[in-house]
């Protein structure tokens, strides 16, 4: 038997025969499909405040969830004990969904799947790294901040590492194991100038082991670039700029989205409205737009689960589909929605590997991975020069969308006014609203500088999932900018 | 609930070298039924139990969570936690509360626990949801789809500590919610809905689905509005937005990290005289009511802000020690605003004459250091004290201190089934960004 599979069987106290028994029980009342998702996650966090690491936390989460699917109907139950009796009980509970259905299938014998390419190989596992070593990272982060300015008032840093051991099987005979590492380093600084205070935040996250700390901005292993120095530089510079900034004048105006974190626009305006559970129910504003032009030629938008070390990457999704790269928009045409198994079956298409869940306590649903726009052919400078009156935004945080109406928002931490083709006064703290289809159609220029933002992005859709987003510089003709009425 | 698990964990922690420890054992049961267009789509049932473990050793502190409660798993988990805690820096302010502060009486009946929770059948729950759905005609041509759900939960929490804390609490919640997706102009499919519930299954109010439908229909044809300064009314469904940032700025962690626009506010008249914000933790029937906080300390009624003057920060034992200030509570149980009038939303709109009623927020954020905010919102334009038409795609922006200085009304109509029960609020001269 596969050594790694045997190891996972030992962790969860199960084996192939037990899993097959649970899947058979799950389908005993009927149904089209059943799966079981075992998870054992440990995560460790150290917190730096007031110059010292004075708090630590550890979380340990263990259990398994059983799902039964009949068409678009789902029964779900989970147990925190993976003893066979408890798994069978969960299977029996989940099977209740099938009581009024006549369709019956028998589980296919299990066959171990191997991932063609491990998207997050670990060199040095976090469990080999002592608390003292991690503490040194936060101490050096503190030093890196104070070295950059004498206006620092407070520094708060956090290093988190986690590892999830996943064992999955379904009634189609798919069986896989996966180890999903995650590393996060984040920093908040508060600075003072006279009586005025400002704060800024920066973070980095990759699916990596301890080598994360020298991964650089893109996580491509360009050793030597220190994440500690990078995020210290970003947070301090960002905070300095805020002292010159104020809220912008309000109203509808042209918006130049800077490269990187502007990808939150794609996440909100497109990503969520392309999730095929909303499409299936007819609740998305893009429900009937497959194959239709939704923006200019040359624009390509991708949701990608295959980027090495990316926070949103998956070897397999949480229902046994291998991670893949999905073109949502190809050359301006709506090319694909984001499918889990249920929506793919409903539409008679292949799942796109987007069935994800927060933990074994949740059933999988269509979720994004890394959502970004590919580069165009215009320089950022040319884009800014083409705007007579508008704003340029380059640091964004949270966003939200109304799936049916298509209205999306994102919050801008900082940017600049654009006056007569030039960046002028710094701006900050403004919420921007647009309508997804209108904003897409209003993209007038796409820069040649696509960047993925590798911050600690978390997508909430009833349950949380790590994601990332990216964008080249883009000019949107008109969006509603919150600010001061002048 | 097997309280022996918590007692065993406490014993293990002290044996392994903790000088003090606090253990909270949680047990939860949940079930949910989701329907699409009155047909069952998803069923979910779960039972969970877990431990939160706070370790104090050699003047150092760690907080830990596990749901692996078998004795041997727990022992090795706690050993590792203590080892990890020993490697960080000491902090003299990390300690358990004085035992004299603990709640040690018998909790009064807040009417928040339905002892029959386990007896309710799937059929009864499904009937409740179906009955709610029957309040409206699903064949209405404006409806694209309706998502409805029934959710219930039972939560038990038993907390003990090495300095004689022992408290127990159990709560049940039963709720029905809905979301309507409707046909509107062009491709737009606006979504709105409603949710309500109670601590007892038989007290779930009727009219939840019809309320969701009416609120959804009312937003059809929403239009954009011109940018300008407006009178703004925050409906009692969303008015907690106006105090959320204030409570966050008053928290000990924000003050210590100097990440608060209210850092130097104690004793100062920061807000208008009409504003008094009180924590009322012992209101019978309020779903948040509790006799003790997350450290087991007895809760009490106190003014957070009194006639506009900031009385106290929100401090647990740790932050009270660091700031050398009296301990209060880190999260108010049931923050209440004293009304400055004897009426609610409808009359407030009449009194304000002309402006915008906000019924939903869409994204946005607050700068914690300056109090500047910007939020997306939607609602209704009103004139001559009457609702005229729905409005959308607006941003409301400003600063929380300035906003409250423009306070006009604090209504007398807080809703019950809310995390924070804040009444309708009205402000003048607020920046709204639109066309």
From the alpha carbons, calculate the radius of gyration of chain B and give it in angstroms: 24 Å
**Which parts of chain B are unreliable, with pLDDT below 50 for 5 consecutive residues or more?**
none
- Low-confidence parts of chain A lasting 5 or more residues at pLDDT below 50? none
Largest beta sheet of chain B: what is the strand line-up?
Answer: 3-2-1-4-5-6
Quaternary status? heterodimer
The CATH C-level name of the largest domain in chain B is Alpha Beta
Outline the biggest β-sheet of chain A: 7 strands, mixed
Average predicted confidence as pLDDT of chain B:
95
Q: Output the CATH topology of the largest domain in chain B.
A: PmbA/TldD fold
| Largest interface summary | A-B, 81 and 76 residues
Q: Judging by the overall fold, what is the CATH architecture of the largest domain in chain B?
A: 2-Layer Sandwich
* Helix-strand makeup class of chain B: alpha+beta
Relative strand content of chain A: 35-45%
User: Largest beta sheet of chain B, briefly?
Assistant: 6 strands, antiparallel
Count of DSSP-assigned helices of chain B: 9
Domains counted in the coordinates of chain B: how many? Answer: 2
Radius of gyration of chain A, taken over Cα atoms and rounded to an integer in Å: 24 Å
The counted number of beta strands of chain A is: 23
Q: Using DSSP, what is the number of strands of chain B?
A: 16
